[in-house]
TrEMBL record:
Organism whose genome encodes this protein: Filimonas zeae
Protein name per UniProt: DUF2071 domain-containing protein
Superkingdom of the source species: Bacteria
UniProt xrefs under Gene3D superfamilies: Acetoacetate decarboxylase-like
Gene, per the UniProt record: yqjF
Length: 244
């Protein structure tokens, strides 16, 4: 889809597109979403000052999203595959400010050291280097990562179904987010993003080993996610940060 077509497809957004010029293009492909409900009190100390936890039926949520970033580039430059394409995992929760619900990244891991350095330097997001591999064999997908610095790890084996998905309100709450929040130098900023609604298909998790920490909340092999999603991906247009 062309960028003008992406921008014209905006009826699903909860608020209008920014009126300023977009700055970055990227693709979030072959995305595995794993979701856990948690007590809101367990996350209040984690989120940045000035935001409020976004709650669904009394619960806050943490998600681990494992995907492949591709074709990331500034508006007027081509992508450069050795830097622009890499596997990424983010651990996130859901916050809101001024009626703009978005995402707050608790942890972000990426496969390539140079991509980590550039992404962290340019965006201010908490990127870290991780060893990440993914493969497909006889319809079995494998996504594996080890963050040696923090001793976080993920090993997921899963298969996909082509059956149609009827999205629930919770599905939309967890996936349809059009901004993210980041605290930088004692100030809160918002990055606006836009993409078509996530296409979803059913996923069956056959094996899941993991350990991540979000504040005082531990996500481990003994606490499997209560909900999972898979998407072939979305084309994303992003704007520069603005004070939130």
């Amino acid at each position: 889809m062309s960028i003008p077509a992406i921008l014209q497809n905006s009826a699903h957004r909860p608020w209008p597109l920014p009126t300023t010029n977009w700055k970055y293009y990227q693709e979030w492909n072959k995305s595995l979403f794993l979701h856990w409900p948690v007590d809101p009190e367990a996350l209040r100390a984690v989120i940045p000052e000035g935001t409020q936890l976004d709650i669904f039926e009394g619960k806050a949520w943490i998600s681990v999203v494992a995907f492949t970033m591709q074709k990331i580039r500034p508006k007027h430059l081509p992508f450069f595959k050795p830097v622009s394409d890499f596997h990424e995992i983010n651990v996130r929760t859901y916050v809101t400010k001024n009626n703009k619900p978005g995402v707050f990244f608790i942890n972000i891991e990426a496969q390539k050291a140079l991509s980590v350095f550039l992404s962290r330097s340019i965006s201010g997001l908490p990127y870290e280097k991780s060893t990440i591999l993914r493969s497909l064999h006889n319809n079995l997908h494998t996504y594996a990562s080890v963050n040696h610095k923090k001793q976080f790890h993920l090993h997921a084996e899963y298969t996909l179904s082509a059956a149609p998905v009827t999205k629930t309100p919770l599905d939309l709450f967890l996936t349809e987010r059009y901004c993210l929040y980041v605290p930088l130098q004692k100030q809160l900023f918002r990055y606006n993003i836009h993409h078509a609604e996530w296409p979803m298909q059913p996923v069956t998790i056959h094996k899941l080993l993991l350990e991540y920490k979000a504040g005082e909340t531990l996500l481990t092999t003994d606490t499997p996610p209560v909900l999972s999603h898979y998407s072939e991906g979305v084309q994303v247009v992003a704007w520069d940060k603005e004070p939130a």
